[in-house]
Design a protein that fits this description.
Blueprint lengths: L1 H20 L3 H19 L6 H28 L4 H13 L2 H4 L2
Helix pairs in contact: 2-3, 2-4
């Protein structure tokens, strides 16, 4: 039993790493921008100083606008690739600030 658990513990990172290598660079960039968009959108708070709000808004614009644009382009590019579309949809679901950004 211990050997089975040890084997699975060692294999899981390899399996995940193998899947990551299959993701095209444009989708990796989209995931990164989406995660940053979500992060900075979650940082905004009315109690922050004007400078902090400005910095956060700048980062929101930077990452959310990129991710929003990438989302539209990737949907067109990968519309017939179910595996890539699943990754794109999962990214949007986990980072809803991208779809609400205008």
């Amino acid at each position: 039993m211990k050997k089975s658990i040890m084997f699975l513990t060692l294999c899981v990172p390899v399996i995940v790493l193998g899947q990551t290598n299959k993701i095209p660079p444009d989708i990796k960039s989209f995931i990164s921008n989406s995660e940053n968009c979500q992060h900075f959108a979650g940082e905004w708070d009315v109690s922050l100083s004007s400078q902090q709000k400005s910095d956060i808004n700048s980062n929101i614009d930077k990452y959310c606008s990129k991710a929003h644009s990438q989302h539209a382009n990737l949907n067109k590019k990968y519309k017939k690739n179910k595996e890539m579309m699943a990754i794109i949809k999962k990214t949007i679901k986990e980072n809803d600030a991208v779809s609400s950004y205008e």
